[in-house]
Amino acid sequence: MSKTNKEDIQILRDLAKQYAEICANPIQEEKRKLWSDHFSLKKTRPPILVSFGMWNLWCREVFADKAMKCKDSFYRNRERILRLKLFHNSIGDDCVFEPWITLDASRGLWKEEWGVKVDRHTSSLDGGACKYDPPIKDWSDVKKLKALHPQVYEKDTKIRYSKLYDAIGDILTIDVSRDPIYFGFGADISTDLGKLRGIETFMLDMYESPKELHNLLAFMRDGILTNNQEAEDAGHYSLTLHSNQAMPYVNELSWPKPNTPCKRKDLWAFFAAQEFTLVSPEFHDEFLFQYQIPIMEKYGLVHYGCCEDLTRKIGMLRKLKNLRSIAVTPVANLNKCVEQIGNDYVVSWRPNPTDMVCASWDENQIKKIIDDGKESCKNNIYHILLKDVETCQGEPDRLARWIKIVRNIVEK
User: CB neighbours of 372 closer than 8 A, spacing ≥ 6?
Assistant: First the structure.
């Protein structure tokens, strides 16, 4: 072993020990119980969660390669994961920290999710906008599409697993994730439809080419279902693939556990329709939701919504029998949403990060928004999610300050 590798491993081991100590704190079990009761529709104190990651600009600055100490890129990526977790713990929200580290299985490059290349034009400014060049410009292009099958390179996965296990396997369990390509945003149809056809174009298709659009949606639905079934038959789903944009604990389902194969019916699933934000409830139902339902019903429970406004679509969502949680975003009408949702589902309330911590720091404004939201949700089962915090103006400690303010209000 080279001197560099020894140094990298020691860095990882020190971080892994710090993280393992956090995971062993009894408060993690308290938070698991809180979230599980909460998502089982029991009245609890409202859980509070902050969401961020390397898709956010400030994280790419604070946790950039130059800020890491490991020289080997494989170890450096694990270092970054651990440092992100240690930082998240310092915030003081209700995030549950699990005593394992996840290693993605080797699956090749997923550049062509439907067998065709989707060009992406990005801004020269880091964190700027991007635009896709949809490959389905004419309906004859649909014949170029093909649904992918699950693919895992087990030999390479084993090599990478051994490398990480030899470094920190005696401190943290190494969980191998084999989630299929059509999972999360990859399974909601909406995300890929926007890339393949273009948002403005598919909205026109609803009027001008409804038959062709329905055929495309049916093809995507069937491709996702086949892919997911093949992945399930191959044992690729596991209990760490729960996904609900919060902490996926609930009394009705098995809790997350590393390296434990399961079926889709054992899991939480996350689905969204951000590209359908400006589509009417009727067309959302006809041209998306009816195609999502067969995919969603394979799972145990479903959270629906990411950043889209679902104010006028709660009635539509009620058609999904295993729906449990609904996103209420900053652009949604909170009062109208909670009135429709009642106590039938969990309200995942997402106040605007710009008002909270991103643009400026106005403690009175924060208190007013949270106070008003608490009043609106007083008869509901809700949690507060500060989602995808993009920037804190160079002051990440604002997140911890925000948590303290919110706790003081909602826990009274």
Answer: none
